[in-house]
Amino acid sequence: MANQNAAPFSLSKLALLLPLLQGHDWQKTVEEQLAGGGYRYTLGRVGAMDLMKVVAAVETAAKRNRLIDEEQYREVHALYHAIIEAIQGVGRGTMQFGEILRTVGLTFAVVRGPMFPQGAEPGDWIAVCLYGTIGAPRKGFEHEVLGFGINHV
Amino acid sequence: MANQNAAPFSLSKLALLLPLLQGHDWQKTVEEQLAGGGYRYTLGRVGAMDLMKVVAAVETAAKRNRLIDEEQYREVHALYHAIIEAIQGVGRGTMQFGEILRTVGLTFAVVRGPMFPQGAEPGDWIAVCLYGTIGAPRKGFEHEVLGFGINHV
Amino acid sequence: MANQNAAPFSLSKLALLLPLLQGHDWQKTVEEQLAGGGYRYTLGRVGAMDLMKVVAAVETAAKRNRLIDEEQYREVHALYHAIIEAIQGVGRGTMQFGEILRTVGLTFAVVRGPMFPQGAEPGDWIAVCLYGTIGAPRKGFEHEVLGFGINHV
Amino acid sequence: MANQNAAPFSLSKLALLLPLLQGHDWQKTVEEQLAGGGYRYTLGRVGAMDLMKVVAAVETAAKRNRLIDEEQYREVHALYHAIIEAIQGVGRGTMQFGEILRTVGLTFAVVRGPMFPQGAEPGDWIAVCLYGTIGAPRKGFEHEVLGFGINHV
Amino acid sequence: MANQNAAPFSLSKLALLLPLLQGHDWQKTVEEQLAGGGYRYTLGRVGAMDLMKVVAAVETAAKRNRLIDEEQYREVHALYHAIIEAIQGVGRGTMQFGEILRTVGLTFAVVRGPMFPQGAEPGDWIAVCLYGTIGAPRKGFEHEVLGFGINHV
Amino acid sequence: MANQNAAPFSLSKLALLLPLLQGHDWQKTVEEQLAGGGYRYTLGRVGAMDLMKVVAAVETAAKRNRLIDEEQYREVHALYHAIIEAIQGVGRGTMQFGEILRTVGLTFAVVRGPMFPQGAEPGDWIAVCLYGTIGAPRKGFEHEVLGFGINHV
Ligand SMILES: [Mg+2]
Ligand SMILES: [Mg+2]
Ligand SMILES: [Mg+2]
Ligand SMILES: [Mg+2]
Ligand SMILES: [Mg+2]
Ligand SMILES: [Mg+2]
């Protein structure tokens, strides 16, 4: 057993590690903590030059996996602003992809639950992590990128 | 032994995982890969309301640990823009901390080397990860944040 | 008679109140002050995911109602920058609607004249107010928004 | 009685009209609707070249008047982002005042409650309106400005 | 005589060439065209980590040299926005210098007059050019930069 | 012979003057210095409402004229960020053209080589200058604009 004596990860670290460790055998530990901590989460992929598709992919995955109640505008609003914040980290200065001739290939995670596993404060938070590549629309002409956003639900 | 059959991490993942896993027993594996891949790196901490201090702390640590040749402007320039990109992810929309009454407590990593451990392409890249908290200048009134930047050296 | 002892509104307040009070019986008073102060103004509506349509709708309405002389570039330029400023208030951080999967339904006012009804300073100013809703392209999943811009003509 | 047959104002309109109508006899009607709708609100003033003072003034007034529970980070977080959005409308492109040699004199309103007076959706929203002048630090060398932000609490 | 058969420069080109050609013998030709075209202009220098000093230096030079009537707010407003636009070109993404540990050494020109020497359209325009270096506060660790803004007066 | 006793221009000045002096007889001197200093350069034109076309036009011209090795991602990356910086100067606050109903007609120059003709520091820099007009999609309803970016290769 690997991380016996390590403290459990926070909501944000879980959201960050989930796409970062995809395909790595540590990911199982992250998923165990997500399940054990009562977190709701989703992991997906989206590749696009069109920013709108990125927003839509994350939103749709979060709704389909019941991370938010899609009939409550305030929950949709909370998720939306977390997504926008994550995109700002991906864009680094401007939220534009295709318009400035760059494309993204992103793995995304959305996690909802208490900020800390043993959190005493009431109420959920929702974190969005977008990790992948950004660059020219040509294989290998890209570098990695990560954007992270979080909001109270 | 944990991640036997996992592929080695890229430069960017190493830079991202280093501060995320601080204090966790997985960090040793990350450090082993950094050493084994011939990467130069540094891990440090800075807390501030003053953005200038964040830039200076990362720059100083990278120079002192010989990640860049501080006598070559082009190396300083490469690092500088990577830091600014990382700060954009932390700021999410505006690079301001104290001016808008928020403070940051950040662990930072800077990693220099080939983009991939077995990279065939010549030339180094430098990645900067800032991970920590942002919020009101009051303990517990903050959430996590992560910014990532990368540049060719 | 309602606001007997109140000072007349400034150009900016008139532009702000016109869309805010649409359908309210106070609007008549606002329109009386607009007419009495020699102001030229227009009130219109535009709903779009496409930012370009918002700019075009306001510009077209202002030209058609002779708020600016559309044969003089400097007048067109003055209006244009006032519109852009107003859109920045609507966008709050980024001037994007459809690209980030949000739609707007806006009532807009453009008012031209002296900054204050009894203004002694020569020369006109032009103010643009955009008021309405912004949100997901789904009825009720939106909140209100207001952007305001002003320029010398 | 003036606006007998007008529909009651939304939370956002109340927040917008409160500083816009300061000193005008319509303001009493706005305050009656605020009280009658069970809204919590505050109206204050701040003049500064220093952005931090604007954030602090609004935050302090909202806490002192119990619009938010200052012991709950999620409530503080909700207010904070609403303030930042409002400042973006004031800054129109950049959240800077003194740094670019401009000063603001603002009347601000913060309103908390349901989005609409007869709102059926559960949960509160908090709206921030900043209205006043921006310009050179010289009397009369300024124009009006308005910024508006809103968030779910 | 050099540029016999070249068309005279526009207002914008004159503003751009003036600091670019400082110390070069072509500058005399530029100054002759400025004088011959009835343009009012000023050329100055400012070095700073503090953005406010840059704005102030350009504003002060323009007022002292009577490019604008400093008693008319609309003229001050026109100049102000032209300066801000020029600074955006210098900052490339953010209007910050010292906050992000960079310093500027700028030569600036402000030119007022018709957009084109034989301009038929009534009314003046004012153009601001900032040219110089930006970089670390260490000699030689900087690169060149140019920002340009223009507005109707 | 005109500028006998003037110091040769820097890489950045050459990039700036090349489009500014197009059609002027001084341009020959600029081209002589470019050739004499061992610089690689290209001069082109692009008119568009679509930002992507501007990025593509500059990138394509630089590749076709062998300013960068298009098989090396780090060279493509260096050029890309220089282009983006130049566009920020053109956009002054937002990198949008058609979306906000403005069109650009740009002459662009890309220059690669040492920062200074007698530069002792090893390694090339690449500078991008975009000069032309921006405005409404109607002849004469536009003003001049210049954006400049530079990066280490
Ligand atoms: Mg936050
Ligand atoms: Mg990059
Ligand atoms: Mg203004
Ligand atoms: Mg919102
Ligand atoms: Mg303009
Ligand atoms: Mg640079």
Set down the secondary structure blueprint.
The structure is a homohexamer of 153-residue chains.
Chain A: H1 11-20, H2 27-36, E1 40-48, H3 51-64, H4 73-91, E2 103-113, E3 125-135, E4 142-152
Antiparallel strand pairs in A: 1-2, 2-3, 3-4
Helix pairs in contact in A: 1-2, 3-4
Residues 77, 81 of chain F line the site of one magnesium ion.
How far apart, in Å, are the first and last alpha carbons of chain A?
34 Å
Count of strand segments of chain A: 4
- The CATH level-2 architecture of chain A is identified as 3-Layer(aba) Sandwich
Q: What is the fold named in CATH at topology level of chain A?
A: Hut operon positive regulatory protein HutP
Give the overall shape of chain A.
globular
Helix content of chain A: 25-40%
What is the assigned CATH homologous superfamily of chain A?
Hut operon regulatory protein HutP
Largest interface, C-beta closer than 8 angstroms, per-chain residues: A-B, 34 and 34 residues
| Total number of helices of chain A | 4
Radius of gyration of chain A: 16 Å
Could you list the spans of chain A in which at least 5 consecutive residues all have pLDDT below 50?
none
Q: Identify the CATH class of chain A.
A: Alpha Beta
**β-sheet strand percentage of chain A:** 25-35%
Average pLDDT reading of chain A? 95
Element string of chain A (H = helix, E = strand): HHEHHEEE
Q: Structurally, how many domains make up the residues of chain A?
A: 1
Instruction: Give the bound compounds.
Output: magnesium ion
Strand numbers in spatial order across the main sheet of chain A: 1-2-3-4
